[in-house]
Amino acid sequence: TGSPEFLKTLPVVGALSLGKEREYRKHFNQLSPEYFDLKKDVVDYFRQNRIDPKQGPVSWWLTLFLSCLLWVLTGIFPIFYHHYCSSFLGDTWTAWVLLALHVVIHQTVTANLCANAHEGLHFAVTHHPMVWRLMGLIGNVAGGLNSWFWGGGHNLGHHQFANIEPDDLDVSVGGIIRFSSYQPLYLWNRFQSLYVPIIYFLTTWLLRVISWLPLVTGNRGPTITVNALPATTAPWSHWVAQVLLPLVWICHGFVIPFLFLPTNMALFYIIAHELVASMIVALVFQPAHVHGDTRVYACNEGGSEDQPGRKRGLPPVKQNWFALQFQVTREWKVDWFQCLFHAFGNSGLHCQLGHHLFPGVHPSHLPGLRPILHKHAKKHNLPVFFAPSWWAAIVDHVQYLHKLSHVPQA
Questions:
Q1: Distance between CA atoms of 401 and 159, rounded to whole angstroms?
Q2: Which residue among 31, 217, 255, 324 has the highest number of C-beta atoms inside a 10 angstrom radius?
Q3: Beta partners for residue 17, in sequence order
């Protein structure tokens, strides 16, 4: 389940908790009879088919081992190039094409590895909390994140309050990007079609800042508060790993390229890796929640049932958590374009509705839940947003942001 009450009990969340209490949460966090009706059908689906909802087609340890092995083998390309290619390729265009091709391949492998970390932080692999922590730590190695704070904040923030400003940091950017026609149209928003790609290219660095900032500030944005360092709720070895494992990412992503590649190639290698990784992450998460059919809501702080509580003009949240998941998510069919560029098609993020309602279910089972979710959506008169492909979802997201660059405030 992805219910707010259950998320608070997870060991992955650790010492994080919700920050300032908001009025709308009193009705929003109450699980409705409709949700329990859906959950009953989902439980019956797994029982009747004799499926363990946390067991994928391949054992977790084999998946993790193969992902790590491919990541290491593709990551040592600078060493391979230095010993076997540099002498006869030199600074030719062939060398640069080879380097660019390697960046795409290695980031495909890295995306698959980070998908494993994402599943671990969502307790979707096995029933053992230690395995969740172990897989979450992959994000420290492959992405330089602090998986404890990112995973806890992602569960408590985005998954509880999707598309609610300011509780969901994914859409709370202080007016820099206009995600809704209800938000004011600032002067700079007229040019967001030009600068949003630049921001998206910085996604991985923004995620790293968000994940490590609690060590300095004691909180993770306006929603999440750090009550105590996780040393109080986890073994010291796990906390040491949180700090030391990103050193592997630094060595792999910065030290090795500069040691074994010419300086100009090393700079290209590092920058290209970050740009490709950032764009993959941004173009998976953002089109799933920001498009022409969905909305961004306000927390209704200080407002009434009929008037938006936020000064920026967003509509207040009136529905409960269950209903909101249908209204702020979009799914798509996995196409050749998605399979070619990254492995997120296997991590369930194309089944965004099922992922938000049941993040603890292994992603390989989410396509099987679609008929059940669609049946309940029709039963309760709730929308289901579906794109024919990942590429179609991206195009719609880009067109929607461009439209918002000139549409007056609603």
A1: 23
A2: 324
A3: 225
CA dihedral 330, 334, 336, 338 (to 10 degrees): 60
Task: Encode pLDDT of 204-227 as tens digits.
Answer: 998 898 888 877 776 656 566 666
Radius of gyration of the chain (CA): 22
Q: What is the pTM of this model?
A: 0.88
Which of 349, 297, 354 minimizes the C-alpha distance to 320?
297
Answer for the pair 172, 165: CB distance below 8 angstroms, yes or no.
Answer: yes
Cα 100 to Cα 77: distance, rounded to the nearest angstrom: 12
**88 vs 137, more confident:** 137
Q: What is the pLDDT of residue 306?
A: 38
**Three-state DSSP string of the chain:** CCCHHHHCCCCCCCCEEECCCCCCHHHHCCCCHHHHHHHHHHHHHHHHCCCCCCCCCCCHHHHHHHHHHHHHHHHCHHHHHHHHCHHHHCCCHHHHHHHHHHHHHHHHHHHHHHHHHHHHHCCCCCCCHHHHHHHHCHHHHHHCCCHHHHHHHHHHHHCCCCCEECCCCCCCCCCCCCCCCCCCCCHHHHHHHHHHHHHHCCHHHHHHHHHHCHHHHCEECCCEEECCCHHHCCCHHHHHHHHHCHHHHHHHHHHHHHHHCCHHHHHHHHHHHHHHHHHHHHHHHHHHHCCCCCCCEECCCCCCCCCCCCCCCCCECCCCHHHHHHHCCEEECCCHHHHHHCCHHHCCCCCHHHHHHCCCCCHHHHHHHHHHHHHHHHHCCCCCEEECCHHHHHHHHHHHHHHHCCCCCC
Predicted confidence (pLDDT) at residue 312 exceeds the cutoff of 80: no
Which residues have CB under 8 Å from 29's CB, separation 6+?
Answer: 4, 5, 160, 320, 321
* 374/393 Cα distance (integer angstroms): 19
pLDDT of residue 10: 52
Lowest mean pLDDT among 29-38, 196-205, 386-395: 29-38
Q: How many CB atoms lie within 10 A of CB 139?
A: 27
- Residue 93 is predicted with a pLDDT of 87
* pLDDT for position 104: 87
What is the C-alpha to C-alpha distance for residues 102 and 74, in angstroms, rounded to an integer? 8
Report the amino acid identity of residue 408.
P
Token digits for 47? 């029982």
